[in-house]
């Protein structure tokens, strides 16, 4: 049984900050009011699909270590001695904390809709800023030498991606780098897959599509193009796949547990939206988990990075 089963209750999470920029469209950036569904806590009036509670904090930290192992590091861009680093959608802040340790002379900013892990003792050169990428970042042009954004595929509606990446480029200093890390959302990003995996994938993709999220794997494949359209140069695109299940060794076992927990995190909204019982959805996720070893399923990811030209 994974260790995050022994989690504390969702009310241990700090409440959302109350200052927010004016809203439009999805009314994003407003106070991220929580909503309880089943035993999980979600943000309201946000396209963001995943829970915001202590169980998810633990899963995100766990996932951070898996991705760091898969990529042999925290980033691929050829950064040298950045003075200011920004992590957009920083989640638990773990990535940003590690960058703050690695670059003790840099100021590292983590931005998210709300702060989690209030009990953590962040490095002294780290600070949290509440914000919403879909409302524009609360920073001046050209303020950061390295801007990182990882796994906002379940948060940024597909049509908003080009604008979001332009916003990341806007706050990047000339000569600085933007790096994006995403997972695929097409069925072909879960291949080879069995029937339970295909069914739970389809239900989650449909749930995401209702919020405008990419359900066809287009965003992951377009990351380098978004960077180029935002005026960045020296772009690189690095696709990689992580095995799911014991057949893939330790990283495969860990990633399978991570995905299993991630899907469980949206079992209640899936059940509610598609008129199924949550028990039925949980069983489907359990079957999918078993299938990954049988079918040798892999999950696809990509990293894309690019540099803001000096003359920008
Ligand atoms: C799947 S988590 C990834 C967290 C972190 N980047 C990581 O890789 O561990 C997505 C994060 O994006 C945040 N998020 C969702 N919508 C956002 C938005 N519109 N602006 C900023 N952050 C957002 C969520 O609160 C969550 O912490």
Structure in words:
The chain is α/β, with parallel strands linked by helices and 312 residues long. The chain has one domain: Rossmann fold, CATH 3.40.50. It is built from 8 helices and 9 strands. The chain has a 7-stranded mixed beta sheet with strand order 5-4-3-6-7-9-8, with helices on both faces. The chain has a two-stranded antiparallel ribbon with strand order 1-2. α3 links the parallel β6 and β7. α4 packs across α8, α6 packs antiparallel against α8 and α7 crosses α8.
Short description:
This protein is an alpha/beta fold and 312 residues long. The chain has eight helices and nine strands. The chain has one domain (7-307): Rossmann fold (3-Layer(aba) Sandwich).
CATH class: Alpha Beta
CATH architectural designation? 3-Layer(aba) Sandwich
Q: What pattern of helices and strands is seen along the backbone?
A: EEHEHEEEHEHHEHHHE
What does the radius of gyration come to? 19 Å
- Distance linking N and C termini: 51 Å
Instruction: Provide the β-strand percentage band.
Output: 15-25%
CATH superfamily: Vaccinia Virus protein VP39
Count of β-strands: 9
Q: Which fold name is given in CATH as the topology? A: Rossmann fold
Bound molecules: S-adenosylmethionine
List keywords for this structure.
21% strand, Rossmann fold, binds S-adenosylmethionine, single chain, 312 residues, alpha/beta
């Amino acid at each position: 049984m994974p260790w995050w089963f022994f989690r504390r209750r969702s009310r241990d999470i700090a409440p959302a900050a109350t200052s927010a920029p004016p809203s439009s469209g999805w009314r994003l950036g407003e106070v991220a009011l929580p909503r309880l569904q089943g035993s999980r806590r979600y943000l309201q009036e946000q396209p963001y699909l995943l829970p915001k509670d202590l169980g998810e904090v633990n899963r995100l930290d766990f996932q951070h270590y898996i991705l760091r192992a898969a990529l042999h590091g925290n980033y691929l861009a050829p950064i040298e001695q950045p003075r200011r680093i920004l992590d957009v959608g920083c989640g638990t802040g773990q990535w940003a904390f590690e960058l703050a340790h690695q670059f003790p002379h840099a100021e590292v900013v983590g931005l998210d809709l709300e702060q989690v892990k209030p009990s953590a003792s962040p490095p002294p050169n780290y600070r949290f800023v509440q914000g919403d990428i879909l409302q524009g970042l609360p920073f001046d042009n050209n303020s950061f030498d390295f801007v990182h954004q990882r796994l906002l595929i379940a948060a940024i509606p597909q049509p908003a991606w080009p604008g979001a990446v332009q916003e990341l480029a806007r706050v990047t200093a000339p000569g600085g780098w933007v790096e994006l890390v995403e997972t695929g959302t097409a069925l072909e990003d879960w291949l080879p897959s069995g029937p339970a995996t295909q069914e739970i994938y389809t239900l989650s993709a449909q749930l995401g599509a209702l919020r405008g999220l990419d359900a066809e794997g287009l965003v992951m494949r377009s990351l380098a193009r978004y960077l180029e359209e935002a005026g960045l140069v020296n772009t690189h695109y690095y696709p990689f796949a992580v095995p799911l299940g014991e057949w893939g060794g330790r990283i495969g076992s860990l990633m399978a547990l991570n995905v299993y927990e991630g899907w469980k995190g949206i079992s209640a909204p899936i059940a509610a939206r598609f008129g199924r019982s949550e028990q039925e959805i949980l069983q489907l996720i359990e079957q999918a988990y078993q299938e990954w070893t049988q079918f040798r399923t892999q999950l696809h990811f990509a990293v894309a990075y690019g540099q803001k030209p000096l003359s920008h």
